[in-house]
Design brief:
three-stranded antiparallel sheet, single chain, alpha+beta, 13% strand
């Protein structure tokens, strides 16, 4: 059950945050799933093509907008990689 704690903490944090949409929630859940698959490392290194389908996000624009907003709102720290051979880094606050 410890694996659900970050998601539970996220839901508590966003309860009164009107800026968060269902797309943000889906993206955050997909990022958490990726983190579980990678052995709970922090940061995780991911590519948009890995995360977007899991979050049911079809547009690259929507993905980048939502991940940047999650970072700006303080839910994750996002370091975008502009290299095709290196994924972006996502830091989780614990």
């Amino acid at each position: 059950m410890e694996t659900l704690k970050p998601l539970s903490d996220f839901f508590l944090a966003i309860e009164k945050d009107f800026r968060i949409s269902t797309t943000h929630i889906a993206l955050y859940a997909a990022l958490l799933q990726c983190r579980v698959e990678k052995g709970f490392v922090n940061p995780i290194q991911v590519y948009r093509y890995e995360i977007a389908p899991l979050a049911k996000i079809l547009s690259a624009y929507t993905y980048h907008k939502c991940i940047q907003e999650l970072s700006n709102y303080g839910y994750v720290k996002y370091e975008r990689s502009f290299k095709k051979t290196q994924g972006s880094k996502i830091y989780f606050f614990e």
